[in-house]
Design goal:
Elements (H helix, E strand, L loop, with lengths): L1 E2 L11 H14 L9 H21 L6 E4 L2 H12 L4 E6 L4 H12 L3 E6 L5 H11 L4 E7 L11 H10 L3 E5 L18 E5 L11 E5 L37 H17 L1 H19 L5 E4 L8 E6 L4 H10 L2 E2 L1 E3 L4 H7 L6 E5 L6 H15 L4
Parallel strand pairs: 1-11, 3-4, 3-5, 5-6, 6-7
Antiparallel strand pairs: 2-8, 7-8, 9-10, 10-13, 12-13
Helix pairs in contact: 1-7, 2-7, 3-4, 8-11
Length: 378
């Protein structure tokens, strides 16, 4: 199969990932932090190793790395722990449902109000629009780093500086940028970076993290066992235990650590340049076909490209490609705001997304298949 759905989850994974999951389950998968025997200690050590690797990659303190199930849970923890009653929130107009739905629910409960800022312009215009929409009670800004539908990059360093000046907390959705773009939570004034294991960081599904960059103590959003202070009725008031209730996903987190070591050896910048080369090739090929409509948010190359075949639904195109053993994604990609901005229509669009394991030959084969489909050959 030619796999071009890496914005959803990268596939395949480095061999070290599956090997570490198997090793953990077979040799050392105790309950971390819950016992004093060797299996528990080894599990705790592996989890701390991954915590430290993430802290190194994003320039954070290891104790501020909080493990979650995925980016969605990470965003929910960050947003709901920072909420201020009757406060005002800003989000971008290309946000994923992982951002818009928690914010909308808080608004439904009348805990806050929110509005969107425009990303349809230069970075300077984006900053200007944010500045114009800041109110006296604006306490939080949440935005994606890279859109999951069009490789649109937001200027998070400049946004972070603006938030710091105005004493506004800043949460970044790094689902599509972690492992692709360099992110420094301290230098970029990010209060909480939310990331997945299973996308650009090449780990398994089932884990993510909130990486906090603050000494503030936010409100609890989850309670339960932590393995420490068991006689106390309240959750620990310090990170990471404050938000890590219950048993950790030890095999997944351990394997994520091995993926991070693999990523470090290759270097993020090299992966980014490789994926951008595939993007440029794919875009140039699709532009030669007059029966294809491309949707581009800006001038950046990236690893995600969206298009439609004229007079053929996105789902039909994806099905025809699947029949040829080519995996893509069709529809609205959990990002209705971005699709509205791009005017993709009532059925959404087809998305192709690349990883370090794709090849130029695969892109050429994908384009040959698209050409056949546009000629009416299902």
């Amino acid at each position: 199969m030619i796999y071009l759905d890496n914005a959803a989850t990268t596939f395949p994974k480095p061999l070290c990932v599956s090997e570490e999951i198997s090793k953990c389950i077979k040799k050392y998968c105790g309950n971390p932090g819950r016992s004093s025997h060797n299996l528990s200690i080894k599990s705790a050590e592996k989890i701390y190793e991954t915590r430290s690797l993430l802290a190194e990659l994003f320039n954070a303190n290891p104790e501020n790395v909080v493990f979650t199930y995925n980016t969605t849970y990470a965003l929910n923890i960050a947003i709901k722990s920072m909420i201020k009653y009757s406060g005002h929130v800003l989000i971008s107009d290309i946000e994923h449902n992982s951002v818009i739905r928690p914010i909308q629910e808080l608004a439904n409960q009348r805990l806050c109000t929110y509005e969107t800022f425009s990303t349809n312009g230069s970075n300077e215009e984006i900053i200007k629009d944010i500045n114009n929409k800041i109110k006296s009670n604006t306490f939080l800004l949440v935005c994606t780093h890279i859109s999951n539908v069009g490789s649109r990059r937001l200027p998070i360093k400049e946004i972070g500086a603006l938030c710091k000046t105005n004493e506004i907390s800043f949460i970044v959705d790094g689902a599509q940028s972690a492992g692709i773009l360099d992110i420094d939570v301290k230098n970029m004034n990010i209060d909480a970076l939310c990331i997945p294991s299973h996308k650009g960081l090449y780990g398994p599904q089932g884990s993510g993290a909130v990486i906090f960059n603050t000494d503030k103590i936010y409100r609890n959003v989850i309670e339960g066992g932590t393995g420490i202070n068991s006689l106390e009725l309240n959750m620990p008031d310090f990170l990471p235990e404050k938000f890590e209730a219950g048993t950790m996903s030890t095999p997944v987190i351990a394997a994520w650590g091995e993926a991070l070591k693999w990523l470090k050896a290759i270097e993020v910048s090299k992966i980014r340049r490789y994926e951008e080369d595939l993007y440029d090739l794919c875009k140039s090929l699709l532009k030669t076909n007059k029966n294809i409509t491309l949707y581009e948010m800006n001038e950046y190359s990236g690893n995600t490209l969206m298009f439609n075949v004229n007079n053929c639904s996105p789902s039909k195109v994806a099905s025809c490609l699947n029949d040829r053993d080519i995996a893509v994604r069709s529809g609205f990609h959990c990002s209705p705001l971005a699709h509205k901005q791009l005017n993709t229509g009532k059925n959404g669009a087809v998305r192709v997304s690349f990883s370090v394991f794709n090849t130029r030959n695969e892109i050429n084969q994908f384009y040959e298949a698209i050409n056949e489909i546009t000629k009416g050959n299902p």
